[in-house]
Amino acid sequence: MIKLDGGGSGDAFQKTDADWNDTQRVAEFWYKGGFDLLLFKLTTTGGQRNIYFYCSSGTNYANAYGHVFIFLGTGAATTTWKRFEENLQALYDQYSQYDFQNVDGIIIYPSSTLSYDMYIDRMQFSNAMTTEYNSLQGGSVGQIAAQYTFSGGYTGITKKWMHYDRLGNLMNKSGTNGFGTDVYYQDAYGNVLSSVYTGAWASNSSGRHLTTKEIDADVPLYYFWQRWYEPTTGRFVSRDPIPYINLYPLANSNTLYYVDPNGESIIWVIPLLLLLAACVMKTCEPINTPTINPVPPTPLPPRPGESPLPSWTPGPGPLPSACPPPGDACVKGGWGMRESGGDEIENCATCCSKFFGIGTPAANKCEDNCTKSYQK
């Protein structure tokens, strides 16, 4: 994590071509805060040229000298995490009269007009000629819509659409003609397989697989934002940052019913989908779902100097047999207000948004009912 002081204090982040291979052309990182100027120094057929990125509105263009100016819009400067992901070769070749050759350096100046600081996280450079166009935020699953691969200049482009299962695991890709191009197999814990029939592990597991998380095939570990996950054992390599009885297993060791979006909390997925499907079909028949965690897990002993973890609490168990009217799940003591441990730790807004969407009339009504239940 890199922190740059905002408000025009003069701090800047710089890297030169000595920090990465000259052939790399795709720049990716997460940032929060915004910048007045993000500058990439390039070697082109016209000599030393630059690409300038601004967190302001304008029309992209190249000047007479071959420098390219890109305006990301005022929404690029924000207090929430946003993704910068650009193929510099493709972008430069699109606007300039010269041809891209390599990247020589990068300089990021934090915004001088914003009072908050700028943070930069997980910066990487790649020569894969690939960018992923998405609205992915930290901990999201199944939100990468398409992958663009450039094979020489802006015009040589291959587009692939990404398709997921109900847990956000990447299953296959399709081309612009609608036909499948790639198929992926994995077991319940994210081990990439070469065949679903033999269960043999794939020789190359790189890319995005388990709940849209990316695996580093050299290690191999999945990056879950808060910590790293090792699929061959089904456990994280570090403790859960939120105190919980199971500090290391993925999704409470039940990856068919739970997902862990960001390495620190789990979401109960399948029973919720069954319940919502029944409500949409207006059947409201009893839904027989297994009780989660029927046997308490064995807690790990505390480390020296640490307090013992709290005692285990049973999970929420079977869902109600009928579709709940708006607000019934999200009230004081309601089952929707509980997470997997059984404790009532959700708040009204979070619970209602989970069932009815963010800012919808149903969610607003649900939140009103929920708030009133706590005032009684």
Key terms:
376 residues; mainly beta; Jelly Rolls; six-stranded mixed sheet; five-stranded antiparallel sheet; 4 helices; 24 strands
Structure overview:
The protein is mainly beta and 376 residues long. The chain folds into three domains: 1-128, Jelly Rolls (Sandwich); 139-266, no CATH class; 269-295 and 314-375, no CATH class. It is 11% helix and 30% strand. It has helices at 88-95, 270-280, 348-356, 361-375, and strands at 2-4, 13-16, 26-32, 35-44, 47-54, 61-62, 68-71, 82-87, 100-110, 118-126, 130-134, 144-150, 157-164, 170-174, 180-183, 185-186, 192-193, 207-208, 214-216, 221-223, 228-230, 235-236, 258-259, 267-268. Helix 3 runs antiparallel to helix 4 (361-375). The longest helix has 15 residues, at 361-375.
